Amino acid sequence: MNKQSVKRRRDDNDDDGSAITIDDRLSQLPLHILQHILSLLSQKDAIRTCLISKSWRYLWHGRLKVDFNDNCFATQKQFWSFLENTLQRYLDQNLTLHQFIFDCRSVFDFALLQKWIPVVITNMCARSLNLICSCSSTVFRLPFIVFQSEFLVESHLEGRSLKILESTEKNIMLNNLRTLRLHWVNITDEIFEKIISGCPLIENLSLLTCFGLKSIKLHKHHNIKDFGCSVIDQTIIEFEDPHALERLFIENCCSNCFLVHNNKHFPHLKYLELHRVQLPAETFDYFSSFFPCLDELILKLCEGLEEFHLSSSSIKRLIIKMYMNNNIKAFIDTPNILYFEYSGHGFHPSLPSIEFGTTANDWNSQITVWYKLKRSDNDAMSWFGKLNKLLMGLNQSLINLTLIRKKYKKMDIYEGFCKPVVVEHLRLWDFFSSSSDPDLLNCFLRICHPRYIHMNLYEEGGVKCKSVNNIVEYMSKLIPNEIIGSYVWLKDLVGIEVQDNKSKDWQIVEGTICFRLTWRESE
């Protein structure tokens, strides 16, 4: 492209030369589109666009989203001054807002908030209201207009500093509200019922750590598609008709307070995530019938998983994350599964025993284990044997194995393993930081044959654990002329190379080093 084609062409009627050039496609877009683009940026980045050209100097003033965060200002005075000047400009120009975000984690000005929130909702017709007030030393009573807006489509209220409503308030009228999020607020059952009854079109509801909430009854809300709840104590959750529900997140709840209590079918539920939920073994007996369309199931730190049988023809993604303080025994029959993930603190002897029934022909698995081995050979034998058995149960999938060391003592493991399992990626974190690591690598390669081994070069805290040259030198010696000692797997190792995943050249990438291994059976 020649210089003439990129040179700015000035409009004949523009004396100061600030007209938009023919080649400046972005500036030629309609004003409402430019303001929408600016609304996708943070407030700070949107203001920076004033440096693009003269025509952009004040463009950010009319964007459809305003975002006020006190962390972006050196002093509280600057923050509140910027807020008032910005909103006054919108009011003077009779501008509307799509989204109003206020995030203040310090002491805030009650008078200014009481003044401007009604203006934002009524005069500027805000469609989305996000109020985050995290200063625990003060309490701000929300203006009642927040609960009587005909324009609001989304409302996010967060922080114990917010006083939501008085029980004596008038009826709530949020007839167009589709999304409501109440996070870390003080609210009673009576007030919640009053709010939710005034939202006939609610589709997305999120209740995270709501203090004082003991019962969540959704009896007349048949449009809810996405529901998330992190409860305190034994909050009861009731659905009258979960027909439309597609996504469900529950944390800190007893199954008797939710699944068993409802005894409902969720015919269109596709995503279910449970954190710290008590799940007796019989809970899984009705998974297939209660959730016939469930596509993804996530279980994090749930109790009652010591032994369970999960059968589902719809599940495609299954993720289990645990503190492995108890032995887990599971049989999983998911013929259409595409991805399985298990992670947990594998302190001896707690490695899971997982057996798969029918599975898809092409699926991936990810196993992440924190391990801490004792000096006893019997302890180590048991742990490595369980890991070998776990991998054998996944041998029909493309396996990715990540091992994160917490503690290890030097030991020699010579027998007791089944045939090594082919693993696509073996990631070893905090490795080669002690003289016993070559011995530990020997143990791992007796139970699996990885195509790629990834090692990080740093310990916890960012301390470099070993020079790259020493690691490469050791790995290059793994193809000797004769098999020595317990390195019986060397007879199957054909070649080893240092690999960079980002280019064809061999080099170190982002604090890790990757080796590509070629095994005899894979040729």
Note the topology.
Blueprint: H1 3-6, H2 31-39, H3 43-48, E1 65-69, H4 76-92, E2 99-104, H5 110-122, E3 128-133, E4 140-141, E5 154-158, E6 162-163, E7 179-183, H6 189-197, E8 204-208, E9 215-218, E10 226-230, E11 236-239, E12 247-251, H7 259-262, E13 271-275, H8 287-290, E14 296-300, E15 307-311, E16 317-323, E17 329-333, E18 339-347, E19 353-356, E20 364-372, H9 377-392, E21 398-407, E22 421-429, H10 437-447, E23 448-456, H11 468-476, E24 493-499, E25 512-519
Parallel strand pairs: 1-2, 2-3, 3-5, 4-6, 5-7, 7-8, 8-10, 9-11, 10-12, 12-13, 13-14, 14-16, 15-17, 16-18, 17-19, 18-20, 20-21, 21-22, 22-23
Antiparallel strand pairs: 23-25, 24-25
Helix pairs in contact: 4-5
